[in-house]
Design brief:
With 154 residues, the chain is mainly alpha-helical. The protein contains nine helices and no strands.
Length: 154
Amino acid sequence: MAFTLSLRARALRFLALREHSRLELSRKLRRYVAEAETPGVLDRLLDDLERDGWLSEQRFAEQWVASRSNRFGDARIRQELRARGIDAEKAAPPLKANGLENSEHARAFELWRRRYGGETAVDLNERARQARFLMQRGFSGEVVSRIVRGQAPR
């Protein structure tokens, strides 16, 4: 006898593991929606989960920002949130709440220091490699150029 989970049970199982955005949860659950089911059943379920407090894009954004902030810059975090269906208006409060808007230089410097030992590169190729490392993690060009020249945060 095969046991199948209801769509709601699957959604709650996903949400028990970690916070999800509405878009992420929709994508995960879409493969379990039978074609014979009435149209809109998934949207109604997601609406119910939001109304009951199980699904919160604000909570998801806060958790995502907190977990990524020590390794990535503001631009990368915003891009990742957009890819998960969180618009700029919902992404701004968690970035401000965690103080990320004012700490990008300090976060990038700490990441650079851990990775490269805090030694300013003399060789242009090494300096370019360090700059690429920080740029790929979403730090701004201004912050990256200050760091690879050895300018510590104030």
